[in-house]
Amino acid sequence: MALSKHIDPDELIQACKDHPHFGLLDDGLNPTTHKTVYGLSDIPKFTLPSDGIPRSAAYQLIHDEMELDGAPILNLASFVNTGMDHHADRLMQENMNKNLVDFDEYPATQAIHTRCISILADLWKVPKGCKAIGTATTGSSEAIMLGGLAMKKRWQEKMKAAGKDIHNPGPNIVFGANAQVALEKFARYFDVECRLVPVTEESHFVMDPKEAIKFVDENTIGVMVIMGSTYTGEFEDVKSMSDLLDEYEARTGIDIPIHVDGASGAFTAPFAYPDYQWAFDVKRVNSINASGHKFGLTYAGLGWLVIKDESLLPKDLIFELHYLGTAQSSFTLNFSRSAAPVLAQMYRFLELGRKGYTEIVCADLANARLLSRALERSYFTLLSNIHRPAKVSVATRVTATLGADQEDPNLYCRGLPVVAFRLSDEFMKEYPHVQQRWIQQLLRIKGWIVPNYNAPKAVEQIEMLRVVVRSTLSADLVARLLTDILEVTESLKERGSDSTLMMALQAHGETHKDQTSVNHPAQRRPSGHHPHSNGSNGSNGSHGKRGHRTKHNGSRPEAMGVHHKDDAGEGQVGFGRPC
Ligand SMILES: *Cc1c(COP(=O)(O)O)cnc(C)c1O
């Protein structure tokens, strides 16, 4: 039971060791050391062991501890891809020891990096005559920092040239309140005022360009438009934003650029909606970021930034590296990192091609529609829209009814393969004792991670459950998931008594809540944290939750000593904000 809430398990175990004066062998578990079954004496956990141990034992020790992690395939909270095949694994393993930044030493790696940028620039429709420039990053977050910095520097240059003050009132940036935490991080880390455009249920929980335009002024370094909100998967309207900024410039003479946060959308829209205008085919889009490790289908650790033309990258951000005799330029935040993720991306490009990516995205969207419709016909109201028919032209509809491809995502509203839903008003009226977040908890007992979030600021009273449909969630698993969601919901209905339910919850998931917070020191809310960030740390799949902060004082990040085998599958319990 939930002893750990009040009692320190490390101390407890220490106190329960056999008492030495009975002359018994001290073989009680010591939570601050690894107690191994490999014939080794205790190995300290939190300080460097003085002697090494056999390699096979070191491997086994860590391997065994990894067994306690949850199953990535059931983690429907995360956009991050979890599966590649053994060819990719082999390529990565063969090249793990290469440093991406050693251009001179590893020219072949560098050539592949450049080709990836070229492929992405083309996919995102860089206009003829532009010389696109870009870089691999560790994820979209780093790419967003760089894209934001380029906008900030260009704004500074523009203001200085006009003889204007760049400090008072200083720069601002505009994006929707539905933004992923990386966007707010950029604003805070780089001292740019963050102007959050409120979102509403009517705006489908994303930024409405007509609202956004009210927030821009002479000191706006740019507008970040999100192609694929983490809340509902909804695309923001890049083209309308650009058109409104054109009108604004015509009226005021102020030229404001757009950066597109295409973390997920930049790897799905080009395939699912090839004619949709959102990328460099929209005039004001100067830069785009994407996560290779989401729908780019590599493993975690890869993002991309592409800038439409090298003239848009301020010289100030480029560092000339004189490394091993030759001059190279760099504009990343990190320096050394493995080349392996970039090779994994090129492997995916070659293995899948446009057709392969299209098939995967269309299958994800079809599975998401299936789940959406099924939920809508049971106890839920859908907050995502990809299953709703689009207002398509008669010609398109005719082709569709003539037996053409009903699976074509263009017949439906555009968006990411995300299913966001809540209990219907009718259900809540009939069973007012039911709390939606219990569904998250009960699904967790069955192994599924389906987070329950509050909607963005100003509409946060709306709670939504969310499933990200990745390629690992097959139609069979969708059916299984639906069965479990219905079963769990009906059990809440029938039980009728919260006390029975709460007892069930306490016996399972809830037990680990506080331990979990301690286990992930990065989740602790830093002081002065932005009020609506809900303590989320922004790393993929790691979420904090308001009201579920650890009761430990946080001075011992090492307090992760005691795990039991039945912790497997239990990770973070609460979710504050989608990542
Ligand atoms: C995931 C995500 C990010 C952050 O990307 P990382 O690759 O995890 O750093 C930013 N914006 C959006 C819309 C996202 O979905």
Automatic annotation (TrEMBL):
UniProt keyword Lyase present: yes
Record the organism: Serendipita indica (strain DSM 11827)
Class of the enzyme per the UniProt entry, highest EC level: lyase
Composition skew (Basic residues), residue ranges: 522-532, 543-554
**Keyword annotations:** Decarboxylase, Lyase, Pyridoxal phosphate
GO cellular component, alphabetical, reads: cytosol
**Its family?**
Belongs to the group II decarboxylase family.
Output the Gene Ontology terms for molecular function.
Answer: glutamate decarboxylase activity; pyridoxal phosphate binding
Reported cofactor(s): pyridoxal 5'-phosphate
Post-translational modification N6-(pyridoxal phosphate)lysine, affected residues: 294
Q: Which InterPro entries does the protein's record reference?
A: Glutamate_decarboxylase (IPR010107), PyrdxlP-dep_de-COase (IPR002129), PyrdxlP-dep_Trfase (IPR015424), PyrdxlP-dep_Trfase_major (IPR015421)
Query: Which reaction is recorded as catalysed by this protein?
Result: L-glutamate + H(+) = 4-aminobutanoate + CO2
Query: Can you say what this protein is called?
Result: Glutamate decarboxylase
From the UniProt record, give one GO term of the biological process aspect: L-glutamate catabolic process
